[in-house]
Amino acid sequence: MHNFVYGGGSYVGRHGASAIYFDTELPRQSLESTTGGCFEGYDDLDHPPIEIVDRNHLATCDIADSTIPGEPYEYRIDRTVSVLARAHHDSVSDIPIA
Fold first, then answer.
1. In contact, 35 and 13? CB cutoff 8 Å
2. pLDDT tens digits for 8-35?
3. φ, ψ at 31 (rounded to 5°)
4. Contacts of 67 by beta carbon, 8 Å cutoff, 6+ apart
5. d(CA 95, CA 40)
6. How many helices (H) and strands (E) does the chain have?
7. Residue 47: which residues within 8 A CB-CB, separation 6 or more?
8. Greatest extent of the chain over all pairs of C-alpha atoms, in Å
9. What confidence tens digit (pLDDT) does each residue in 54-64 have?
10. Fewer CB atoms < 10 Å away: N or C end of the chain?
11. At CA 77, angle to CA 71 and CA 42, rounded to 5?
């Protein structure tokens, strides 16, 4: 997947996408370098507020801030990636969701 994305392909992860290789070392490293982070755990189900960070991006330009039900994931995050949207949860702080 890493080579496909960096060769010009696209990747869209959905719920749990950052955790699909949670219990393995490889290909977890490839997924983490592609998505900019890696699942480490989660907290209780909540409805965290969602903030659109980049309103100029085509994927988020027509989306309003909102809330969404879900388990706030705890991530190891690459701080150099562009974040389009983030959620805030008191126990895990701000977490990127797009």
1. yes
2. 887 777 767 766 666 666 666 777 777 7
3. -60, -45
4. 47, 48, 49, 50
5. 12
6. 2, 6
7. 67, 68, 69
8. 38
9. 999 998 999 99
10. N
11. 20
